[in-house]
Amino acid sequence: MSDDDTQQVETRILLVDDHEVVRQGLRAMLDAQPDLTVVAEAGNADEAVRRAHTFSPQVVVLDVRLPDRSGVEACRDIRDRDPDIAVLMLTSYSDDQALFDSIMAGASGFVLKQVRGGDLVDAVRRVARGESLLDPAVTARVLERVRNPRESEDPRLARLTPTEARILDLIAQGLTNRQIGEHIHLAEKTVKNYVSAILRKLEVARRAEAAAYLAERREERGG
Asked: What is the pTM of this model?
């Protein structure tokens, strides 16, 4: 056996979940591997961002739903500060919008909590190597949404990012900022900031006007 075969490259991991029992279970499973080491834990998004900066892990295992802000926002903040950190999103349910937002935030993978322990360990190793755990078909759909926004024929609507377009659609459905936040896993304050950006890009003053603008454009297209 060569020296390369006998040496283990340690992968440093940050665990982020608001349930201590979940973190303990993940830590026990990951620390049992000779090449994986949990260097820190966090119970909310802000703490996750701080500890990612302090401990410089190679991989962050990050719950989508956190008590202060969403894991998607934390992923974006972590990756903005250090693009070399790989983020593996962990969730207890399948959610296409959360998956889409996670990809847009720079996540390397999206795994359900029901995953078998061995598969999760493999997932951590793969994202640490720079691989993606995202289904190619799903990634292709996300890229299509980015390149060809649904309302791209209208110059004002084309200014919106995919997340802004999604929020505008929910505004048009009559949802409040709080309801929108719960729907797409964003803090209410973050949704409010998105709404301000939407109003500015659409050149309107109120959310009712933004909803009316969207309805008019769709009616013009026969939608």
From this structure: 0.65
